[in-house]
Specification:
Number of helices: 11
Largest sheet: 9 strands, mixed
Number of strands: 13
Radius of gyration: 21 Å
Low-confidence stretches: 1-29
Order of helices and strands: EEEHEEEEHEEHEEHHHHEEHHHH
Distance between the termini: 38 Å
């Protein structure tokens, strides 16, 4: 979870190294006609970066890792100055002298500055997913399902001359992302934090509307006792079709660590135009781990998922979508081949340090590839038995 902080004025230098993974998404046009981030989130050879942080900045991040320091990011031949940088993560959190996950905000201290047109990216250390591939593969599937999702790239990060190895770069939740899916970006965007349901006071990341009133309306709609009245109330406050597809994709990708099954790792956006809320996945590094997760989970942990699926209309929409979404998004053989391509890139980074590490990674990547194929076989049998 990203925590807002005051900016400390530091003299520091930060650089990262990233190689992009293509995720096909709609995009809002930027000056020059190029979509924000389009040149970063495409399948290109690795980009080279160098990394340095000043002693002052390092000391600050040791003491207050969630508070921004001002740094410099060099990507290829381009140098970005005065970038707000802090450490991030819950399960993936590591101190700055270890392998920290980082948030790089290019526009916070320099409002006109963009990184490939983007305001913010996150660099995740892969501690929850040693293949570094699950987030990118799942994001690609959510994009195919025409659901809002952050774009993902593989990354290599070096810090003060230390090669930290492979990382995962994820698009920040800013107007850049929201604007690709909604015509009005001024609605409230909330972060779930760690295992917080919509009934809790979620952290507001952005938005011009009164805090949490939209979430209270949605929670009240879900808690309506009469199922006919509940569905009518949900239709007024929730994008019910998008939510059915969101739940279906959580199950298809076996995302046990998301909202549906674990009440975790999600963002919600209140669209001022439709006056309805949409769920957005976040933190999908635990996908494709549970091969035999059933089409309808034994328990929906998220209260709204449970309440939605208690209604006949919600169940019908979910069942209507899950089969076609599996067919149009999963593409098991193509996804397995994509694992091979991306794994080779990660392996090359690891092999520079240690052939033992590279051989161990081969085993991890092969395991992911196998689980993806097994999951496809399981879902095919489940859908055929309906």
């Amino acid at each position: 979870m990203e925590i807002k902080s005051k900016v400390k004025s530091q003299k520091s230098k930060v650089v990262g190294l990233a190689l992009a993974v293509a995720v096909v998404l709609p995009a809002a046009a930027q000056p020059g006609g190029r979509p924000a981030g389009a040149d970063f989130f495409k399948d290109v050879p690795p980009r080279s970066f160098e990394v340095t942080l000043s002693a002052e900045a390092m000391a600050s991040l040791r003491q207050q890792p969630r508070e921004d320091v001002s740094g410099t990011v060099r990507v290829g031949n381009t140098t970005y100055t005065n970038v707000a940088i802090h450490l991030k993560g819950v399960a993936t959190f590591r101190p700055v002298d270890d392998q920290p996950s980082l948030t790089l905000n290019f526009a916070k201290l320099n409002p006109n500055q963009r990184f490939f047109g983007l305001r913010k990216i996150h660099l995740n250390n892969g501690k929850e997913d040693p293949t570094f591939l699950c987030e990118a593969l799942a994001a690609d599937m959510f994009a195919r399902a025409k659901l809002p999702v952050a774009r993902v790239a593989l990354a290599r990060t070096l810090l003060n001359g230390r090669d930290l190895g492979p990382y995962v770069a994820i698009e920040g939740f800013t107007d850049d992302l929201i604007g690709r899916y909604f015509t009005n970006t001024k609605g409230n965007l909330y972060d779930s934090g760690f295992r917080n349901d919509i009934t809790m006071p979620l952290e507001k990341l952005s938005g011009k509307e009164p805090d949490h009133a939209d979430l209270r309306r949605l929670a009240a709609a879900g808690a309506t006792a009469d199922l006919n009245e509940r569905w009518a109330a949900l239709k007024r406050t929730l994008d019910v079709d998008s939510f059915a597809r969101y739940l279906a994709m959580q199950v298809i990708t076996a995302n046990w660590d998301g909202y549906a099954m674990f009440q975790n790792n999600y963002r919600v956006y209140h669209d001022p135009v439709s006056d309805r809320i949409t769920f957005i996945p976040h933190g999908m590094d635990q996908t494709f781990t549970r091969v035999t997760m059933p089409l309808v989970p034994l328990r929906w942990a998220g209260s709204l998922a449970r309440q939605y699926m208690e209604t006949p209309e919600g169940q019908a929409l979910y069942r209507q979508h899950i089969g076609p979404l599996f067919a149009s998004t999963y593409h098991a053989e193509a996804t397995a081949k994509r694992v091979d391509v991306l794994a080779a890139r990660v392996r090359a980074i690891l092999a520079e340090k240690s052939e033992v590490a590279a051989l161990n990674y081969d085993r991890l990547a092969a395991g992911l590839r196998s689980r993806i194929l097994q999951r496809a076989d399981f879902l095919t049998s489940q859908l055929g038995a309906r």
